Amino acid sequence: MVKSKHKLLKVFIYIVAALAVIAIIIGYYIRTTVFKPLELTEIAYIYIEPSTKYDEVAAQIKEKVDLPSDKVFEMIAERMNYPQSIKSGRYAIKDGMTMPKIIRMLRSGNQTAVKLTFNNMRTKENLAGRISNQLMVDSLALLTALKDEKKVEELGFDTNTVVAMFIPNTYEVYWDTSVDKLLTRMQKEYNTFWNESRKAKAKQIGLTPLEVSTLASIVEEEATYSDEYSTVAGLYLNRLKRGQRLEADPTVKFAVGDFSLRRILYKHLEVESPYNTYRNDGLPPGPIRVPSIKGIDATLSPQDHKYLFMVAKDDLSGRHNFSTTHAEHLRNARKYQRALNERRIYK
């Protein structure tokens, strides 16, 4: 009887020991697999559209991240009910994250915002394309919205001025944001940008905020160097005050649809367009590009001078000669034309 009890005790000890070993092995496996921190040299971004299936998400993760175990990842995902809880967005998988943490992030929709930028945009097409390269937004859908008279009117613009609503800056925007939400966000940023101080400056120079954006767009197209912005702005304002046509070459390029033109010929000056400031008085109906903050602020603080004319310097540096008389302007213009001829630049 005693021997039997002793034997049972030994069996019990062996069983407990075996279970302890198994527990240790399982614990070690869990620690080194399930909760093993990822080792990444850079952030891996996962992009999930509303139509993306779980298998596609898993494949994308496996392609971009060296998981401790693909099978264990899928087991955890199933256990956490992720295949039935997929949310669209842009997600950042970072160094040190574990598989459960990745799945919790994806399941909760805790996405990482995109730093949206758009600089040096000349047309709606350029703008829509640039934005669609950074967000899930379809460029055609955005372009259609920008050309929709009713939609842009609700935002406080028209189809000619709506590009002024996009103030070039860096914005944190969710990758899967809709066209409508994006436009509402840009409207809010525009209203914030045009604070009381800027509105007061616009009033002081006799322009509305939209007219400032339009003039700033011409100034930026005309001046290669930003230190000339305020001088060029002052020149155009002098012309507007005198009732002179702006006669701005960039508006002709916009009207013709060719910004690469080096020489503006008489045939270009005759183009029928409300944007041709050689044929129409005052400002064109809207910006000829998306003006930058620097261009807008320079236009709001124009240089006080008496210049009425400008022409590119004959060294083709991109800088300008400014003048107060037409005779002086003609002399400068002839130098520039001669420089173009010498370099065989005919268009």
Please characterize this protein's 3D structure:
This protein is mainly alpha-helical and 347 residues long. The chain has three domains: 2-108, Dna Ligase, domain 1; 115-193, no CATH class; 204-342, no CATH class. The chain has helices at 2-34, 54-64, 70-79, 99-108, 124-132, 139-146, 149-154, 179-193, 196-204, 209-222, 229-242, 249-256, 266-269, 293-300, 326-342, and strands spanning 44-48, 89-93, 114-117, 170-173, 309-312, 320-323. The strands form three sheets. A two-stranded antiparallel sheet has the order 1-2. It starts with a helix and ends in a 5-residue tail after the last helix.
What keywords describe this structure?
347 residues, mainly alpha, Dna Ligase, domain 1, two-stranded antiparallel sheet, 15 helices, 51% helix, elongated
Overall mean pLDDT stands at: 91
- Could you give a short account of the major beta sheet? 2 strands, antiparallel
* Apparent shape: elongated
- Hey, roughly how much beta strand do the residues contain? 5-15%
Major sheet: order of its strands?
1-2
Distance between the termini: 113 Å
How many DSSP E strands? Answer: 6
Radius of gyration of CA atoms, rounded to a whole number? 32 Å
Number of helices: 15
Q: Based on helices, strands and strand pairing, what is the structural class? A: mainly alpha
Helical percentage: 40-55%
Number of individual domains = 3
Which ranges are low-confidence, i.e. pLDDT below 50, for 5 or more consecutive residues?
A: 16-28
What are the secondary-structure elements, in order, as H or E? Answer: HEHHEHEHHHEHHHHHHHEEH
